[in-house]
Amino acid sequence: MTAQLACFDEDVPVEGTLRVELEAEHGTVEVALVRDSAGELHAISDICSHGAVSLSDGEVEDCTIECWLHGSRFDLRTGKPTGPPAVQPVPVYPVTVDGQRVLVDVDAPL
């Protein structure tokens, strides 16, 4: 598969998230579309690597998202945890904005 329509630009709030499900070669992938404080869009796995809960329910600050359950923070650019208790990164996916369309390629994690 290639990049597919995930949402429209106005669907993702500033310093906020939107949870979407996209089809990958290996099945459905839960993705959190996140707009950071600078207005940049990111696509990151919606599943926390520590607690297996939805990251899209967490708080966005600068270029990180915090898991609501145990407080792990992940860098939106790399998926790497920036603080405990998580030690494993989460996948991040390429995002392309084409006009108002937000496209994500879940088959090509960064």
From TrEMBL:
Pfam family of the protein (one): Rieske
Keyword hit for Metal-binding: yes
Domain Rieske, first and last residues per copy: 3-104
MF (Gene Ontology): 2 iron, 2 sulfur cluster binding; metal ion binding; monooxygenase activity; oxidoreductase activity, acting on paired donors, with incorporation or reduction of molecular oxygen
Key words of the record: 2Fe-2S, Iron, Iron-sulfur, Metal-binding
Taxonomic source organism: Cellulomonas xylanilytica
Lineage: Bacteria, Bacillati, Actinomycetota, Actinomycetes, Micrococcales
InterPro entries the record matches: Rieske_2Fe-2S, Rieske_2Fe-2S_sf
Protein name according to UniProt: (2Fe-2S)-binding protein
